[in-house]
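Researcher: Good morning. I'm working through a list of sequences from a screen, and I'd like to move beyond sequence-only analysis. For each chain I'm collecting a predicted structure so we can compare shapes side by side. This is the next one on the list. No need for commentary yet; just the structure.
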Amino acid sequence: MMSPRSALRRYLLVSFLTWLPPGLMTAVMVLLMTERGLSLAQVGFAVMVFSIVTIGLELPTGGLADVIGRRTVLAISAAFTVAALTLMAISTTFWMFLATGVLKGVARALSSGPATAWYVDTLHDLEGPDADLKPGLARGGAVESVALLLGVLVGGFAPLAVPPAVMTPLALPPMLGAAAGLVLLVTVLFALPETRDLEEHSRRVGARPRRVGRSPGRAIGRVVRDVPATVAEGVRLAAGGPLLRRLMLAAAASGVALASVELLTPGRLAALAGTAELGSTGYAVVAALGFAGSALGSTIVPRVARAAGGSVRGAVAGVVLTALAIAALAATAGLDGAPGFAATGLAYVVMFAGLSVAGVLCSEMTHHAVTAAQRTTVTSTSSLSLQAGAALSNTTFGTLAAQAGLSATWSLAAGVVLVSALLFVRMPALRSARPAP
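Model: Good morning. Structure tokens for this chain:
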């Protein structure tokens, strides 16, 4: 019989393996595409396609997980990851990289939420609806950050170990990512049994996820009918409830914060380093520091919540810390050389720590407010809100930075994030949506 500790170990393992492949390919993705002949405009378009596919599929795939099961959707996501990163390693044309972006977008959308939903449902089954979610969710966030940190460092240095005569050095990290995706696929299939609550819900709505393999045609038809209804129910829940509506807006503000640094920092560091190559290396180190800060933030979430007097006040502390870090980037935008790199690295550590604190506590509040039937759909809605905030920022911050400078752009981003702290003022009372047994 599974214990809470066993469920946590499985959740942490799957979380690590889910985020390791993206980390491995992050450091070399742009360089690989440009080395194989793509212009920066084509690179940008391929990345945009990834974002569009992810946004478009967030809610349908969340509903799919709530209908056919977390394990099945995570296994499909792992298969798409293997295909995407294998194709990336051998791609030589713009259209091949475009297809890679589509596959990565599908994989990302499918992986958004099911692992966390599985852990929350399992813990509720084992300990009841009042189970403390903070420690497990905090460790999950920390493990995800560690996976990204290790991935970006390994991916950044692995090409140095490959002679060009053997293979294209920059193709090694995505191949390693594909191998990690294969390990994830096997792990998911054997380590994540479906929870009782999901099965009971599936029988109640008629989805019967366990019978997919016995009658494929009828099962697929049931899934197609059930997914839109589940998505609609989740959207109504997220948009109609005052608590969830505020949490979705907070997620959008987090997207603004992330976009402001991911879009503008690489160019800033390239200018400091003097060349794009050295700037890319510097960005890999700074990004790794950010992931370390994220892991630290996730680890201290329970302590922050206790010190602040609850999850809501703890989330406010995380949001304010994030805003202050971005404001520090704005204030140090004029620094050159080593001081500029040091200031950027320190701001990244603080900002990602704040984002993790706020993110984990908002996730806890979200999971307490929904039932197993809509858990992954609502989680996907939160991810969609974050990406919508990032997409809106990407369309404006680049132009603003060119016209008004980095300091003004980061100041605006810091202001938006700071204002979002008001969303937690007089937060509606949290009542568990889980029905009594």
